[in-house]
């Protein structure tokens, strides 16, 4: 039975991170910004049925839910905990096994991904979020924040600057990081 064992605040005042008693994903992250996007994902679709939910992000052993500014957590939190107790985790669409970077992936891209995996993604996950790399053109890295980070004011400025500084220091001083 899926249970919420803790609820944590995130830097985003409109998002909470719900820590679960078991892993629901081993490799992937899943981000849904609308009910329509969540149609084929039974877990996200169910969470979107709760009034006030505007985004759902999940990975590993947690789910981050973002609410509207007008909504109160009381109308979301207890119903979410209850629906998770009766949710069948076997209905979550299967994951794809992670693939290594192919031979065509540039050495620069590999180094960037290594740094993001070691130093950035764990910190973002701690705050209920994630980071998706959308592409690398020359030395410009395009990223998209996920979960609590997706609409958090600090991710747009402070975290972006920190990621860029880290990559400039550890990988190449010419790197520029831009949000999607």
| Total domain modules | 2
Oligomer: single chain
Level-2 CATH architecture of the largest domain: 2-Layer Sandwich
User: Which sequence of strands runs across the widest sheet?
Assistant: 1-2-5-4-3
Structural class: alpha+beta
Strand content: 25-35%
Q: What is the helix content?
A: 25-40%
Gyration radius over CA: 17 Å
Q: Quick check: average pLDDT?
A: 91
Query: Which spans of ≥5 residues are poorly predicted at pLDDT below 50?
Result: none
Count of helical segments? Answer: 4
CATH level-3 fold name of the largest domain? Ribosomal Protein S8, Chain: A, domain 1
H/E element string?
EEEHEEHHEEHE
CATH superfamily grouping of the largest domain: Scaffold protein Nfu/NifU, N-terminal domain
Can you describe this structure in just a few lines?
Helix content is 32%, strand content 28%.
Could you explain how this protein is built, in words?
With 180 residues, the chain is α+β, with helices and mostly antiparallel strands. The protein has two domains: 4-91, Ribosomal Protein S8, Chain: A, domain 1 (2-Layer Sandwich); 107-179, GMP Synthetase, Chain A, domain 3. It has helices at 42-48, 74-85, 107-126, 153-170, and strands spanning 4-9, 15-20, 29-32, 53-59, 62-67, 129-137, 140-147, 176-179. A five-stranded antiparallel β-sheet has the order 1-2-5-4-3, with helices on one face. Strands 6-7-8 form a three-stranded mixed β-sheet, with helices on one face. The longest helix has 20 residues, at 107-126. It is globular and about 50 Å long. The model has no long low-confidence stretch (mean pLDDT 91).
């Amino acid at each position: 039975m899926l249970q919420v064992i803790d609820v944590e605040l995130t830097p985003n005042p409109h998002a909470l991170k719900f820590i679960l008693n078991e892993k629901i994903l081993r490799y992937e992250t899943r981000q849904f910004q609308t009910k329509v996007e969540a149609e084929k994902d039974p877990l996200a679709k169910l969470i979107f049925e709760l009034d006030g939910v505007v985004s759902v992000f999940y990975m590993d052993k947690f789910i981050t839910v973002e609410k509207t500014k007008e909504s109160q957590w009381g109308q979301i939190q207890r119903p979410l905990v209850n629906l998770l107790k009766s949710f069948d985790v076997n209905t979550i669409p299967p994951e794809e096994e992670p693939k290594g970077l192919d031979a065509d992936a540039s050495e620069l891209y590999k180094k960037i991904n290594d740094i993001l995996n070691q130093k950035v993604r764990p910190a973002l996950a701690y705050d209920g979020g994630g980071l998706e790399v959308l592409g690398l053109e020359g030395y410009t890295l395009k990223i998209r924040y996920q979960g609590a980070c997706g609409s958090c004011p600090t991710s747009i400025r402070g975290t972006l600057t920190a990621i860029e500084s880290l990559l400039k220091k550890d990988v190449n001083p010419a790197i520029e990081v831009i949000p999607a």
